[in-house]
Write a structure and sequence with these properties.
96 residues; mainly alpha
Length: 96
């Protein structure tokens, strides 16, 4: 069954998967950063929560900014680029 060119999943499927995999791969990094903070339990938990919110916001911004132009096939290197972009998303906004 061929996909319609108007099907949003066909157009945005790869970027959506890339963002989701990047966020999932970044969760342990955020947990390690939060755990390494020289704070009490509440401070570490709040640091982790702030990083999670930062990553989710970055995922939304990255998807909205890049998804329409993304045509590359998904590879490990491509997911790595998305993951790096996810952590550095304020620079992407500053450049616009």
């Amino acid at each position: 069954m061929p996909t319609s060119p108007h099907d949003p999943l066909a157009r945005y499927g790869r970027p959506l998967v890339a963002v989701l995999l990047s966020v999932l791969a970044s969760l342990p990094i955020a947990a390690m950063i939060g755990g390494l903070m020289p704070l009490g339990y509440t401070g570490r938990a709040l640091t982790y929560l702030a990083l999670l919110l930062y990553l989710i916001a970055g995922g939304v911004v990255l998807f909205r900014t890049v998804a329409a132009a993304e045509q590359q096939p998904l590879t490990v290197a491509r997911i790595g680029i998305w993951m790096l972009s996810l952590w550095l998303w304020p620079l992407l906004l500053a450049r616009r």
